[in-house]
Task: structure prediction
Amino acid sequence: MRWLASAVLWAVIFSQHPQMRLVPPRLELHADSSGFASGRIQVLNSGGEPLDIRQVVPSCKCASATVLKNPVYPLEVGEILVRVNTQQWKDTVGTVELEIETNVARQPTRYTVIVRRTP
Result:
């Protein structure tokens, strides 16, 4: 077991690029009685260089995303705060897509936020 932990740590330290993992894999929110929902996405960097979150672009004007920690250094955790205003929605369930631009990939990473609200 000690060998495995050492191997993982060695791989992380000597990795040339940042590695991003988003937790949870998909965010599910419930709007409050005023129609607003908010939640946090954890951004894990398991690579060997800092992860730079360049921008987060929501698919609609009803949502906003704020990067709370940037850059995310190796073996550290950052956060993205997501807020959604469902007051103008006609359906009780909606989806907001986030495009997360980083130094990990050339194309933005797509992330899904599902919001439920009571009519």
The chain has a mean pLDDT of 91. DSSP finds one helix and eight strands in the chain.
